[in-house]
Model the fold of this input.
Amino acid sequence: MDTPLFRPGGATRRDLIKTAAGAGLVAVAGPLARPRPAHAAKKTLKILQWSHFVPAYDKWFNTQYTKEWGDKNDTDVVVDNINLGLIPSRAAAEVSAQRGHDLVMFLSPPSVYEQQVVDMKEVYDECAKKHGTPIDLAVKSTYNPKTKKYFAFSDSYVPDPINYRSDLWDDIGMKPDSWDDIRVGGKKIKDKTGIPVGVGLSAELDTAMAMRAIMYSFGSHEQDAEGNLTINSPATLEALKFVAALFKETETPEVLAWDPSSNNRQILAGRSSLVLNAISVTRAAENDKMPIHEKIALAKAAKGPVRRIGLEHVMDCYVIWKFSENIDGAKKFLVDYIDNFKQGFMASEFYNFPCFAKTVPDLAQVISKDAKAVPPNKYAVLSDVLDWATNVGYPGYSNAAIDETFNTWVINTMFAKAATGADTPENALKAAETAMKAIWAKWRDRNLI
Amino acid sequence: MHRPAPAAATPRQRAGLFGRIADNERWLWRLMLAPAILYIVLLVGFPFLLSLYYSFSDAIVASREMNFVGLENFRRVLDSVTFWVALKNTIFITVVSQVLVLVFANALAMALLVDFPGKWLVRFLILLPWVAPISLGSVGWLWIFDSIYSIINWTMREAHLLGPGQWPIWLGTPELAMASIITVQVWRMLPLATVIILAGLSSIPQDIHDAAAVDGAGFWRHMFQITLPLVMPVALIAVLFGIVFVFTDLIAVFVLTRGGPYDTTQVLASWAYFIGIQGGDLAGGAAVSLFLFPVLVAVAIVFLRMARRAELT
Done:
């Protein structure tokens, strides 16, 4: 039977196919059409980094600093800010496609990408010439002693002090100086006011930092200084038992649903007596004129049975892909950025601390007199942060095995299982060790550890 | 035979060539099907073959070098406790959510079959979750289940359904977290299932209903002996869609719980993402994700056969 090719009063089949084909062509070819650049010779530098927890920093970096740097260096600087949780997948996509940004900033040492990135030794050397040696925390987070390669460059780190409600803690006559204090005082406050401690036990960044802070202060470590797996130790078992007690006595199941913004939300909503977080908590409250900021005090990392130690809250680690289209421009940008780091430190409202200490020589004085803080010396406690902050992977270097363990939340899950009683501390430790042994074996096979 | 040179072809002749293609029944369907096939080959077939390739290698996210390792990745995956938890959770979430979807979609479709004022608005509202991106919807649900701001908790407290000290932590308790994820999956899949079943219901000839009424069939008899058997083929297709979407979904778990508390809501898709992308073990992630494939193929074959049989009877 013949198909009618023409319908009276309507479009013909030919019209329909023409329209569909035209629309299809536009849909396919449209995204490929690019406007011709105004200046063909002008270079481009594409930067990918997180949406900063202090919005003033992004404003300064995106609209002022990079524009000025671009004008001086005849370069169009494009900054893409994304949610911190999306950085790993974006990086993986760029490596897979072998194209993307020239500079990518990770928030923890991206050791697994070592084979895809350029060696940053030259950048470190250039900065060291002008500003002295970088802090040990930066080197331990971005250098692989096995391959002798700097797989990233760290411009700054973020201190991770204790943020606590001074009114509640004063009320019970205690200060959160040690983990024992936090357990005892936290319970007293919870019993009295119903307000719990907020140390995360979830699959997320802040929990990963907090649990390691407890481990390291108890003398437990994922690896030794040479990179050998050492998770299975009596100290780890003690840390697990401590966290189980801390959870039962001072916390609620809210910490099992923690995400990277929970610390801020909980304490600012008056629902936590203590959290481990960067100063974005108090900065947000000050900037939004929330009265609670006057009741939030800062303290150094808590003392454990072995030492007083905590982690950095965030470690800024810039990498330059080997396939980057502007490797030299990216390196120059980093060197120049360190020259101007004090601006970044001020724009971040003391959130980003320098990895080249001499770039902010008056740091201690500046942070001890802040116009917004109540009292004005609230942030002075951070002046000796390097005495109590260390890198992920302490006492060794942050390597690929540490990175995978960190990002697959092995330590977080181990602590959460033991804390909730879903598993005994011994079994939780055994399960974590099994997972970590496989991870260590894999990266040893690849000669990266 | 003399043929004009192509360069000399007039616009009219070119239009004639196009017309010949447009009128050619033998080639036109192939031409029109080609984009869809190309799409499936490029965006489904190629990634599938690639993940098959990865799963037998030691591929990592940060290297283009890889070696054949046989079944090593599958052995590692099967040895992992988390894998079995994720597999169990994936099946549980899929089955429970689809049973609920089937019940609710039937009820909704029947309600929407009847004329009432504002029906278009109700249909529009029901379709909204399907139109909205799942990531956006999940973020909305994240706030609904938030431990401080949960609108459910505040509503229950105002309604005096929560006593003093009672405050469910939706995403922090394993059972509640699982219920939250199932709720989001039901919310997401309900519109599609409703529309499909509604189409099925609308296609039942009115004279069958009339004949049943004349024979004195009551509501339940009408429902179980006429409506449901006739709507079964399309309902099975709706469930098949639902199973495929929920079984392979990563977003709901990733946004709401990230597999927590302590892996109790981990599903295969999220576990594959955490291993493959976050952890950098591309081969391991590919091996986990491939476990989805045989299950889905089997389910699709069973459901399509059932739908066909239901159609024939």
Residues 1-6 of chain A have pLDDT under 50 and may be disordered. The longest strand of chain A covers residues 43-50. The CA atoms of residues 57 and 192 of chain A lie 39 Å apart. Residues 162-312+389-445 of chain A form a domain with the D-Maltodextrin-Binding Protein; domain 2 fold (CATH 3.40.190.10).
